[in-house]
Amino acid sequence: GAAEAAKAEILDKRRRHVGPNLALFFQDEPLHIVEGRGAELFDAQGTPYLDCINNVSHVGHCHPRVAAAVAAQLTRLNTNSRYLHAGLGDYAAELAALLPAPLEVVYMTVSGSEANDLAWRVAAAVARRADPGDARPLHVACVDHAYHGHTSFCIEISPYKFKGPGGGGRLAHVHVLPCPDVYRGQNLDGRAAARAAIATAEASGGRLAAFFSESILSCGGQVILPEGYLAGLYAEMRAAGAVCVADEVQCGFGRVGRAFWAFELQGVVPDIVTFGKPCGNGFPMAGLVTTRAVADGFASGGMEFFATFGGCTAAPACGLAVLDVIREERLQQNAAAVGAHCLARLRALQAQHPSHIGDVRGEGLMVGIEVVTDRDPAPALAAALKLHAKRAHRVLLSTEGPYSSVLKIKPPMCFSIAQADQMVAALADGLAALEASPTHKAALLERNAAEVAAVRERHARLG
Ligand code: PMP
Known about the structure:
The chain is an alpha/beta fold and about 475 residues long. It has helices spanning about 1-15, 65-75, 85-100, 110-130, 150-155, 160, 190-205, 230-240, 290-300, 315-330, 330-350, 380-395, 415-435, 440-460, and strands at about 35, 40-45, 50, 105-110, 140-145, 175, 205-215, 215, 225, 245, 270-275, 285-290, 355-365, 365-375, 375, 395, 400, 405-410.
């Protein structure tokens, strides 16, 4: 019909004029979404889809209060941060109030990538200033399978990319800590991992200037760090002179329910916190928060910091509205309650399908389901469940983790109990359909083994 023709035309234009390696969700049957509200998306025919994965539309798609705040600012003034305007200081002060001391100085950027890139410049400046006589090159550490952004530096510290399809491999100044795997009981000691990275950095003639990590590993597969993991790790890193950067681009702003920032669950205070995605509810804004001492170290070189759109007048207007909505709609509390409900329902499902749901883990509305076969990653099975949820239930899920075998649930924070039940029902039905079709299931299991072997080969070659 007409809708299919319109979709084909959009796809055709995209194929001809948009970068070919820009990915689409559901590559073979992409969705044409035209509207969003709360945790729901609507296609061109008005068909609703339940969005279980968009952690950017943090307070709900197109939240009217946020949209109105941005629109009002755009119709009055939107310029760079070089004129006095109350919003920037107000937003920075509100962020500082939400963070533990001594984190209190804010730099605004446009994307999470830029925030992490800037964090590296800050860390490098601090390292050089701390010991100007030390001529060793500056090295950096990160956690395996992490993604920190798309700038050149961020790709260098994103094993998810440099060991992924088309990846160029690890560079010599980058040291990768193994990803803790609580489910399989591997690499649980943060202190030991830090010591090993520091030792390899020093053995190769460098000094570590920074350690980057998310406080819950999202691309790594929704990995909840073992208790005390970052505390020991940070202590070792700091003793070696490295600045500790917490990437809260995905897990910040109340998503984890029990805390406003995920690093708080680990009982640590980072030297730099980078943030992005959720802070603007879809408006492009991001940044970092650091201590007065670190900021002064960065500034002392004399170079100005300026980003045309970082902290532009509309950004703090948007960011302040997002913070208001989080508070007024008690979205952090909702994340805790609905997240706990998801975990309980999913664990009940796991008890019914123990051979294919290996692990259910999460904090608040940051939940992962590890799809397995005999405890081995089962990417083909995970992909089939995702596709079934979309086709039969219009529930949008996604996969991540080193083998793309972890189903992720990171919906807008207004996700309701009823919507959580809808998501669980889609998965339950998908698992039941699988069990009812042994030949389909056998074919998927065969594909799992091939996909896992291919990933392992690539990781061994590029790590
Ligand atoms: N850090 C993390 C943890 C992310 O998930 C992302 C984006 N997926 C980034 C950084 C980069 O953010 P952006 O895409 O806004 O540059």
